[in-house]
Design brief:
This protein is an alpha+beta fold. It has twelve helices and eleven strands. The strands form three sheets. It has a six-stranded mixed beta sheet with strand order 1-2-3-4-6-5, sandwiched between helices. A three-stranded antiparallel beta sheet has the order 7-9-10, covered by helices on one side. Helix 1 links the parallel strand 1 and strand 2.
Length: about 350
């Protein structure tokens, strides 16, 4: 057996335990502060061996195994299948998917992502309702969204003076915007006859990947997308799927593409005034994403980049880039308050 220098004796032992046949080679293809991925070659097949992190407030292995089991059971294809699991050691052996990174997202890709999300919703059954938990950081009520933003704001406030241009942006834009957008969302919910403080009822929720996008997809030889990484999978408001997809900083989507995804989902979900609630919540979702993007200003996030060999440029460069991304996102929020994106 050949192995990369990163394939330790522990990895080899797990691979031997989970694979049915003798192993020919093991090589690590992704390493970072999150999960690690190894390509395992046997005489009969190629597999992805995934090691999940220990220090987390969420059982990522369980979430992904449940998600992939649901998709296989419901015939929702173009995803890996679970071959074997070692829960006590936090490993899963998955079928291998050949493909290339999705460098440019086309309109057809956006339609594919939307169709995948809709297929997940159509596949919901009693077993899924009992076996699958909430999505990571589910946004099932106004206070839940507010709590996520406020928690991140508190950490950012502690470092706001470390970057000269950030303190004014935080104090004069981000903080006042939160109060204004919360008031607007509460008023909109009152007009609709909904309780902003209450979780939406289970029958109005759907299953979402929560981190879906080009960064978690591969393009196969036939040009079609295959979908990966379901560690954050679970129940959430359908509107969270829209917000996460159109705001994700890992993709460069045109306004037309954002509208394509949004309109596809609004055309499918019509059970809890999604079209009316969306403009009320989108600005809050936007501030939530600003806070996520600005997390790179925190010293521990920079250390995470260094540990995962993902650092590009100096920390000052990265922090300025993230502030610029947050400013750009804030600039879109006024248009979101007016209603669903229009396709041009």
């Amino acid at each position: 057996m050949t192995r990369s220098s990163a394939a330790t004796d522990d990895i080899q032992d797990v691979a031997r335990t989970l694979c049915a046949g003798p192993i020919r080679s093991i090589s690590e293809i992704r390493r970072g502060g999150n999960s690690r991925i190894f390509r395992v070659e046997t005489q009969a097949a190629r597999y992805a061996l995934k090691k999940y992190p220990a220090a987390d407030n969420r059982n990522r292995l369980e979430a992904e195994v449940n998600a992939l089991g649901f998709m296989e059971r419901k015939g929702i294809g173009r995803t890996p299948k679970v071959v074997a699991v070692s829960p006590e050691r936090r490993f899963a052996l998955l079928t291998w998917i050949d493909g290339e990174a999705v460098d440019a997202v086309t309109d057809a890709d956006v339609a594919d992502f939307a169709a995948f999300q809709i297929a997940l919703d159509r596949g919901i059954d009693a077993e899924a309702r009992s076996a699958i938990g909430e999505a990571s950081e589910a946004c099932l009520s106004g206070p839940r969204i507010m709590s996520q933003i406020e928690r991140r704001y508190a950490r950012l406030a502690a470092v706001k003076h470390d970057v000269p241009e950030f303190a004014a942006f935080f104090d004069e834009v981000l903080e006042p915007s939160l109060a204004r957008f919360e008031a607007g969302a509460q008023e909109a919910y009152r007009r609709l006859g909904f309780d902003f403080s209450q979780d939406i009822a289970p029958q109005f929720r759907t299953l979402i990947p929560s981190d879906m996008g080009a960064h978690n997809a591969l393009r196969a030889a036939d040009g079609r997308l295959h979908f990966l990484d379901f560690e954050y999978f679970g129940w959430d408001d359908p509107l969270t799927s829209i917000a996460n997809f159109v705001m994700h900083p890992g993709m460069r989507l045109s306004d037309r593409q954002k509208a394509l995804y949004q309109q596809a989902l609004l055309g499918h979900f019509g059970r809890h005034a999604e079209s009316e609630r969306l403009p009320a919540l989108m600005p809050l979702y936007g501030l939530r994403w600003c806070a996520i993007i600005l997390g790179e200003l925190l010293p521990e996030r920079w250390q995470h980049r260094l540990d995962s060999n993902a650092a590009h440029g100096t920390w000052d460069d990265v922090r300025r880039q993230q502030i610029a991304k947050a400013r750009a996102l804030v600039s879109q929020m006024t248009s979101w308050e007016r209603g669903p994106l229009a396709r041009s």
